[in-house]
Structures are given as C-alpha cells and as structure tokens.
Design goal:
With 294 residues, this protein is an alpha/beta fold. It contains eight helices and eleven strands. The strands form two sheets. It has a nine-stranded mixed sheet with strand order 1-3-6-7-2-8-11-9-10, with helices on both faces. A two-stranded antiparallel sheet has the order 4-5. Helix 2 crosses helix 4. About 2% of the residues have low confidence.
Length: 294
C-alpha cells in the first residue's frame, strides 16, 4: 500500500463499494459528513487504518486540537481521514468508508492513494457524498442530485451525466483520479438552505443516506436521522418565524419547490465560485478567532 496510508489490518471484503465524505467546502451545513458518520455508526463500521496527515495539511489553516485526558494529560488531535469497513445491511456486499477533512495540499497525491487503496481492495464503485448551499426551503425534503462521468454507469445507476464546469474540491479531484485509473465512480450532492448554512442539516444527511441506500441496495434504519430532521425543521422554522422578510422568502421557496418538484439544477461555476469565496472568508474568520483565543 502507498506510503501515506497507515493500514492496521487488511479487511476481507465482498464486492465492496467505497463511500467518501470530507468536511470542508464539499460539505455545506455538514450534510455529507453527518451522513457518512451516521452510516458508519449504523453499519457498525470497524476502523482499519487512516491517512497520515503530515503531508496533506497546512496546520496553520487546519489546526490540530488539544484535548485533556483524565482531566490533566494533554493530547493532540490531528486532522484525519479514517478508513472503515462494514457489511452493508440487506446486501451481499461490503463498504469501505473514508471519512475526514478535505486536505489542504497535494490533492493529486491524496486522491491517487485513495484510488490505489480502492484498487487493492477490489472496490467496484466509488461514491462521494457532498452538500451544497442552494435556494431550497428547509421545510421540504432535501433534493439530491447524482452524477457520473461514465455513460454506461449513468444509465446503470439512473444518474445524470456531469455537466458542471467551475471550481471543485477534493471530491472532484478524486473522481478525476478514478477516471484515469478506470475505477467507476459516482457523486451524490444534497442541497441545503443557504439561509440556514450555519446549522448542521440532518435533513440533507437523511436524503443522502436514502439515495445511497438505493444505489447500493442497503437497508439502513434511518429512524434516528428522521427524528433529528424533524427537530431541525422545527428549530429553523422558529428562527425564520422571527423575521417577516425571511419568512416570506421561505414561503416563496416552498411555492417554487412545490411547483417544480424534486428536480434541482446543478449550480453554475459562478455560483460555486461565490460559495468558495464565502467559505474561505468564513474559514479565515475562524482562524483569527482561534488565534485570539489561544
């Protein structure tokens, strides 16, 4: 295995799929990372390795955290991408999960090593999860778009051909590495309300889990996530109800959603460029706050 992958043991897998989600720009309202973490817990996933963070992060931008153990021993928690494996409930196949933080640098090396791992483990399909900010209401199910670059895979999975052009994140680089290596890959994106971007969205996570389950034939108990989604909707509705202008805007989004149905247009390059600018601005503000607190 490649040098930056720290493999503790090699799992024996049946027709595996690899599911990846990364916190960062690809993860609006934490919808994707929440979905992946929920699935790891629900599927009783077992850790079998991780990616050495040393070569892939600017630690001034993505800072490690200090934690106390037993109240006095200090431990450094580094940004990580952890590798898990699990049996897919109701399916005669297994899953490999890659869950972590979008790397700061050396994306091509990072993606190459993940794809190399997928090839060594006999992965038949790579699926990435993402969440993006969009003009959607929090009171409706989160729309999910699915795309793939391979025409045969598009037909087989009932997805759409990717037509997006513009800024990309680590998931875009990972799919390009899959294409070059001949590994089939698909991407699922949930839309989250831009006006509630600071609140973690279990509703987006629920939509991603459902769509992923359809793709891989897994029957996952989503009751806890459904309850969290109901609570999320109530809390956001209470906040929205305190401002008449925002409430009217959400009502207009509801009307448009009910008229147009589930279909969601992939945002333009300019839209995602603006979102990237917003993300970087907020990230820089958090860095300054951390520096002031340290």
């Amino acid at each position: 295995m490649a040098g930056h992958l720290r493999i503790e043991r090699r799992p024996t897998l049946r027709r595996p799929v690899l599911v990846a989600a990364f916190r960062g720009w690809n993860d609006g309202a934490q919808g994707a990372s929440l979905a992946a973490s929920f699935l790891a817990q629900s599927w009783s996933a077992r850790r079998f390795g991780d990616v050495d963070p040393e070569e892939f992060y600017d630690f001034q931008a993505t800072r490690p955290h200090v934690a106390l153990v037993d109240g006095y021993t200090r431990r450094i928690d580094w940004p990580e991408n952890v590798l898990y494996h699990a049996e897919l409930p109701g399916a005669e196949r297994d899953a490999v999960l890659v869950i972590g933080v979008e790397p700061s640098t050396r994306w091509r090396t990072f993606a190459s090593e993940i794809v190399g791992l997928a090839q060594e483990l006999g992965v038949e399909l790579v699926i990435t999860l993402g969440a993006l900010l969009a003009d959607v209401p929090h009171t409706r199910p989160a729309p999910v778009t699915g795309s793939a670059t391979d025409p045969e895979l598009v037909r087989e999975l009932g997805l759409a051909a990717s037509r997006y052009e513009g800024p990309t994140g680590i998931v875009g680089v990972l799919h390009d590495a899959c294409r070059e290596a001949g590994v089939p890959s698909a991407s699922l994106w949930a839309a989250v309300p831009h006006y509630a971007s600071l609140a973690a969205s279990p509703k987006a996570a629920l939509a991603l889990c459902r769509r992923l389950g359809d793709l891989v034939g897994a029957s996952t108990d989503l009751a806890d996530l459904e309850q969290a989604s109901d609570a999320y909707e109530r809390q956001v509705s209470e906040a929205v109800g305190q401002d008449e202008e925002t409430e009217a805007y959400v009502q207009e989004l509801e009307r448009r959603r009910d008229t147009l149905g589930e279909e969601l247009d992939v945002p333009s390059g300019d839209t995602l460029a603006a979102e990237l600018t917003r993300f970087l601005r907020e990230h820089e503000a958090r860095r300054q706050d951390e520096a002031e607190d340290s």
